[in-house]
Amino acid sequence: MFETVLVPTDFSKYSNKVLECVGGLPGVKKVVLLNVIGPADPLARIWDPGARLKEAKKKLADQAKLLEAQGLEVEQRAEPMLEGEIFRKIQAVSEEEGVDLVVMGARGKGFLQNIFLGNVAKNVLRYGDRHLLLMRYKMLEGGIDLEEHCAMITTKILCPTDFSEPSEEAIRLLKGMGGVREVVLLNVVFSGESQDEVDAKMKEAKEKLTVIKEEFERDGIKASVRVGMGDPAEEIITLAEDEEVSLVAMSSRGKGWMKQLLVGSVAYEVSKNGTRPVLVLRARKAS
Fold this sequence. Notes:
Elements: E1 4-8, H1 13-22, E2 30-37, H2 50-68, E3 73-80, H3 86-97, E4 101-105, H4 119-127, E5 131-135, E6 137-139, E7 146-148, E8 156-160, H5 165-175, E9 182-189, H6 195-218, E10 222-229, H7 232-242, E11 247-251, H8 265-273, E12 278-281
Parallel strand pairs: 1-2, 1-4, 2-3, 4-5, 8-9, 8-11, 9-10, 11-12
Antiparallel strand pairs: 5-12, 6-7
């Protein structure tokens, strides 16, 4: 499903850890390793990137060896950029290389502990059109070592759905991903005029989820059903922790999204505030 993957890197410890995860993704054959080089002085109008380009190519070659050791084909790209936003270069390279998936750390160089989603990752999430895997790592005591979730990332996946067409498409993509061992299906009821109406919605949601659960089980994948009530993003984040899932996989959009929005509010909030890796599956644009 994800044969060609783009991995943007800034050579930070956080982005280096992402490389350890790529080989564990089902079906990956080729990795495009990208470093975007901007001027040291953002106000510079004349810039010779020669020395920094040489340094970047050396670091890319070192990182490529780690990926090649995992049996992957690697293409290295060091791209100077005098002005503009880095996410636009990532998008352009994604289109040029025909990548299926962008994999990146949720944070990069210079991140603050209270910042949960770095600026580049945020913009790729909001404006990109490729499937996106945001890797997350928990800072251990002392803030030096990194605890990673990427080992066997498809072991246990939380799949939220609101039964919209984009969510149904995300479930189809998940079924075809390969390597999935267990799925936790979740629907969150967030509105109701009365308790009776809420109860009816929760009952209906459980019935719909049970049908999806049986489809996964027919494919040999262990599945379970959860119905929550409240704020969807908060419920997803909480359940991901309670179930200790290895990944949250969800559609970029759900019910009520507008054509001009590339990512919905729930996907954005889960990606921003969650502590588990998030796979954002892009729904096809509405006809």
